[in-house]
Every structure is written in structure tokens, then in C-alpha cells.
Amino acid sequence: MKIALFGNPNTGKSTIFNMLTGLRQQVGNFPGVTVDKKKGSIKTAQGQHQLTDFPGTYSIFARSLDEQVVKEVLGNPLHPDYPDAIIYVADAANLERNLLFFSQLYDLGFPILLVLNMWDRAQQKGLDIQLDLLQNNFPAAAVVTANARVSLGKDRIIKALDQLQSGARTAFHDHDFQTLQTDAEQTRNSDDRLQKIRSLQLVAAAKHKTANQSTRLDRILTHRIYGYLIFSAILLIIFQFIFSFASIPMDFIDGQFVHLSSWSAAHLPDGLLSKLLTQGLIPGIGGVLVFVPQIAILFFFIALLEESGYLSRVVFIMDRLMRPFGLNGKSVVPLLSSVACAIPGIMSARTISDWKERLITILVAPFMSCSARIPVYTLLISLVIPKIYIGGILSLQGLVLFGLYLLGIIFALGTALLLKLLVKSRTPGFHLMELPDYKTPRLTNVGFTVFEKVKVFVFDAGKIIVAISIILWALATYGPSSRQQALDNLHQTQSYTFATTAKQQELDNALLLSESYIGHFGKWMEPAIAPLGYDWKIGIALLSSFAAREVFVGSLATIYAVGDDSSTQKRLIEKLKEEKNDHGQTTYSLATGASLLVFYVFAMQCMATLAVVKRETNSWKWPLLQLGFMGVIAYLSAFLVYQLLV
Amino acid sequence: MGLLLHMSQTLDSISLNELVEIAAIANNAIAPKLTEMGLTKGQKIKAIFKAPFGDPIAYEINGNIISMRKEEAMQVEVQMA
């Protein structure tokens, strides 16, 4: 049996889903749209059933993408996700409004189980819910109570699933509401249903609640000064974790992969396959996994804030600030996430119901400096920015780093503003949302979210990053036949003959790379990047960044023939500082370095992000546009910076 | 005096903690959504806190807190409860 899980947002629906299905969940999309679909299975006395979690909505009348999915699935019995039965999760503390959507599903004739969740909170609030009366008015439905936060009600739900009634039934209100088209008709139908539900007087002590603790807390958390201060402080803590503490597991993962790579190089027989493994595949996978700690930490905090109810307050206080830029209060989370990695950031834009605001958020998110840019920034900053302290305390290098992040943010907002004027809107956007009560976060739910996000990053983005790494590795490993001649010439030079074996190896590698396909490509494009202050060697490093930006550093290390060990970074910086161009000037001058830094802030050099944008927007048009405009901005600003400084 | 009592305001212009009653909802694209969130004629509602810059505004209705942009609140006509 295919069972669908429906309910309003903030009813603990996903907690119920987790409680019923456990860890065996599959996360995917509904066909043709980018709306999350979670699947799991439940076992009852009658057998195994498939449970699908639908997005939380308030009715089947569709305005947002989420609601569109619900409407399409329920309106089409041939749809692969069309359910045989429904579990409807209602917030017992909020029964009447929750029964609106329930009454619609009831009238569509599905065998249906009504779960009154958060039963404890309804009781705390002194609400006396007349279960018999409820059952009498919806005779064909099964009704159970639950409190999923403490895993109460699972047995009752499973037992009730085997006793669901199918077949014709008298409608609670009417059967034909699905065909209503106009706003006025839909409004009237919902209004009538609500009036009818309220007239049942299901909740005896339906007194008006007075301003509770929630409201007092809200006055502080949404205050025009304290609200922003508290939010900034929370951000500071999160970034402290992402940028400082995450380096411990990241260094560990990095070390393990370097170790694995050299171990397999030493133990596998020499050959193409082992080369592919040790130089292409292992570093490629390592390059993906190294970001897992940052992504896990970020989503741990975001899930924690969301579970607590605080995140919707962030949306509340940020909405007015983001709106002038064509963004939404909900754009804050995707943009912040993009500071770790744009991929989960772009995926979290799904919470934005308005298509235009969501699209703009997706398109500008990669301007936020992600963690893959950090190695590039650090290398270039220590290379061209003098280590001086302004006024004895403020590090100039630190200031430049801060400036790069700021530059990304400014351009993200500026581009959003421009897109606001250019992108046509499909539907009018709205903000209207519930601010849920504050709750103690449930660590299992937080854990599920972290696990899910990491999984998506590793498998979805990961496979693209690995594939690109292998392609780039192949282009850098192979070259036209002229390469052998160049190698022979090198071997006959005096400096080569008198060099140590290790040095000879490094010189070989450098030559093999410069004469490889990617090397030739770099030379071919040199005229195009010369105005930015780059030579063909930098060109190669730029190209290899398409796997992931931090590959820039590794490529330079290979090009300049500094070996791959712990002192690489230091030796690379020394080597780069000595590097001279044809005119005898320093290659990595302030002008070139600054131009590169600006280029890396703006350029869309991440294939995995492009692939995710394609998936999230369902078209190649947007990622290509993004590649284009970010490229143009990067090129022009790098050109400007170089020409001004040179 | 009678005239004043019947004069209606929209939801965006009421002051904090002033309990009012919903009189009507403008007929447009957002009306079905407002209704689904429980904003129907005759319901009591009050503004309980505002975001910085006075927009959006949080309202309490039936024990729920709902956040609305000013332009959305403008679609809801209210009268003194």
C-alpha cells in the first residue's frame, strides 16, 4: 500500500515520519519539480507499506511549488505518487485550522488516518478536545493521538493503518472543490469549511490565549537592536566553528587521503590504472570529503536553529532588509550556507515559495566566498600582501581577506538588485507564514538533517567533482607526441644532469604538465588572460579550478615543480616570489595577485555548483547565464584591478 | 459617533496589542492563503510585535502567531472588536 503523509507546516510531520520509518529513508524529488520527496517504509500486521512524506501545506489550493505538487498528485490517480491511503498529521493545539486541509482530503474519499500530534501541548494549554464529536463528524476517518517528540503514538498509528475505511462516504462539506479555479471561489470554499469546523465546537476550552512566554522572548529576539545583535553573535559562533574548529577533522581527512594516495602508489604495480587511482580518483574523492566537516557543522547549527523555532524569527527580522534586493527573509539561510559551500546553500533555497525570489537567491549565492576559495585566498594574500599591522594591531592581510568576503556579499546583493528588474515573475510572491512556538530542539531530527545534507553533497556534488577531477587529470597527464621530444631535450641540459634525483623528478613533472593537453590549452588562451596579468601557467591553474577552486593551489605546486609534501605551501610561496616573467619582472606582483584574488571572488569556477543550479532550476538556461555573467564580472574587474595597479 | 464606530481600518495600521475583528478580506491572489491560515470574517486578531522597520508584523490569531508583510496585512479589513 502506498501511504502519503500530509499536514500543515510546523505540526511535527517530519518527526512523525522519522518515528515511523527510522533511518531507512530515501530522499529525492517529485517528478519534474524540485520539491523534496522523502520515502520510507512501515510494517504493519498486514504487511510492508511505502510511506511518502509530502511538503507541509495548508490546503490543496496551489500557490507555491510545494502546493502545486500536492494538488497535482491528488488530482491524478495515474500519478506514480498517488496514494492508496493518507496519514494526516494535525497540531492538536491548533486543531480547527489544521482540520481545513484534513476536511479536503477526507472529502476526496481517501482512506484516512488523522493523527492529533503534540497532544501534550494541547493539554498544557488547557484545551479539551472532544474526540467523540470529532469522530462523529468524520465517521470514515480513524483518529489517534500522538506525541512524536517523545516517540508516543507509533503503535497506535501502525495498528490504525490496518483498519482504514475505504469506499464511498458522505462529504463533510462537498466533493467538487478540486475544480474551483478562481481566487474568490477557493476563498469562499475554505471560508465555509472553516466556519463549519468552528461551529462544531470541538475544542471546549477554546479561550483566547494571552501573550505567553513566546511573545516576551520574541520582543527581544526581534528587537531592532538586540534582535540583530543576537543574530550576529550566533553567526559569529557558527563561523568560528566552520573556520577554526572544522580544520581539525579537515586536516585529518586530507592527511589520510595523501597517505592513501602515496601508499597505493608505492604498493600498486606501475601502470595506467594505478596512476588513475593514485593521481586522479583518490585525490578527487579526498577533495570532496574534505568539505564534509564544514557542511556537517553548518547544517547542524541551521537544523538546531530551525528546530528551536528561532530560524523563522531570523526570516522575520531579515525580510524587510532583503526585499529591496528582490530577495526574501528566507534567502538568508541559503546565502549563509554558501559561505561553507554554495551547493547545500542553493539546495536550501527550496524553502522560498516564490519562484522569482528563489531563482535570484540561487543565481547570486555563488558570489558568497565558499570554503574552497580559502586556500586560494590564503596563498595569494601571503604572496602579495605585505605582513604589516595597521596601527600595530590590525593585520593588513586579515583586512584584505575580510574585504574579499565583503566584495562577494556586495556583488551578491547588487546582482540580485539587477536581476529583480530583469527576471519576470510567474506568480506574485508572499511572505505570509507561521511563527512556530519555541521548542527544545530534538537531536534526532537535527541528526537526520545533517545526514541528509552530507549525503546529498557527497553523492550528488561529489560525483561531478570526481568526474571533473579525472578529466582534468587525464588532460594534464597526457599530451601530444611532441612531448617526448621536449622531455629528451630537458634531459640533455646541464642543470638537469647535475640535479638530484628528487629535483629531476620535479623538473620532469613540470615539463610533462606544461607540454600536456591542458598545458597547450593554457598557452593557447594566454593572449586572452594576459591583460589580467596572467601567464599560461596561471591559465592552467585557472582551468583546473573547475573541479574545485582549491585545486588552483595544487596545480601551481605541480607547475612550479615543488614536490607534494608538508612543506609544499611554504616552498610554493618562495618559488612564486622568485618567479620572473620574460621582461625580468616579478610574475606574482601586487597587480597580478590582486587581479587573481578579485577573479576568484567573482568567477563561477565550480562545475558541481552549475550542475546543482541546473537541477534546481530545471533548465540549462540559468546555470549558463550564471557562468556568463559571473565570468564577465570576474574578467572585467580583474582587468580593471590589474591595469590600475600595474 | 456612529459613523466613527463603523469606520474600518486595514490590519497593517492597527496598533500593538489592540484586539480587532476581521471584517473582510480583499478579493485577490492572496485571499485563499489568508483564509487557510485562519483569517476569516469575525475572527479576533491582534498585532503582538513588529520586525525592525515596522515590517513584517506578527499577529496573534486563535493562539497562533502569524507573520505578514504590510502589503499583505493591507488586504485585511478590520473593525474594533
Briefly say what this structure is.
The complex is a heterodimer of chains A (646) and B (81). With 646 residues, chain A is an alpha/beta fold.
Commentary on this structure:
The complex is a heterodimer of chains A (646) and B (81). Chain A has 646 residues and is an alpha/beta fold. Chain A has 30 helices and 10 strands. Chain A has helices at residues 13-21, 65-74, 95-107, 119-124, 131-137, 154-161, 183-199, 213-221, 226-245, 247-267, 272-289, 292-308, 310-322, 332-337, 342-347, 355-364, 374-384, 396-422, 443-477, 482-492, 494-497, 501-514, 517-524, 526-529, 536-544, 551-559, 568-578, 590-602, 607-617, 621-645, and strands at residues 2-7, 26-29, 36-44, 47-53, 85-91, 112-117, 142-145, 389-390, 394-395, 433-434. In chain A, the strands form 2 sheets. In chain A, strands 2-3-4-1-5-6-7 form a 7-stranded mixed β-sheet, sandwiched between helices. A two-stranded antiparallel ribbon of chain A has the order 8-9. In chain A, a hairpin with a 6-residue loop joins strand 2 and strand 3. The longest helix of chain A has 35 residues, at 443-477. Chain A is elongated. Chain A starts with a strand and ends with a helix. Chain B has 81 residues and is an alpha+beta fold. Chain B has one domain: SH3 type barrels, CATH 2.30.30.90. Chain B is 19% helix and 37% strand. Chain B is built from 3 helices and 6 strands. Chain B has helices spanning 2-6, 31-36, 70-73; strands spanning 9-10, 20-25, 44-50, 57-61, 64-68, 76-80. In chain B, strands 1-6-2-3-4-5 form a 6-stranded antiparallel β-sheet. The two termini of chain B are 16 Å apart. The A-B interface holds A 58-59, 61, 63, 93-94, 96-97, 100-101, 125, 183-184, 186-187, 190-191, 194-195, 208-209, 211, 214-215, 218-219, 222-224, 227-228, 312, 315-317, 319-321, 329, 427-428, 430-437 and B 17, 25, 27-38, 40-41, 44, 48-53, 55-56, 58, 60, 62-69, 72. Strand 10 of chain A pairs antiparallel with strand 5 (64-68) of chain B, so a sheet runs across the interface.
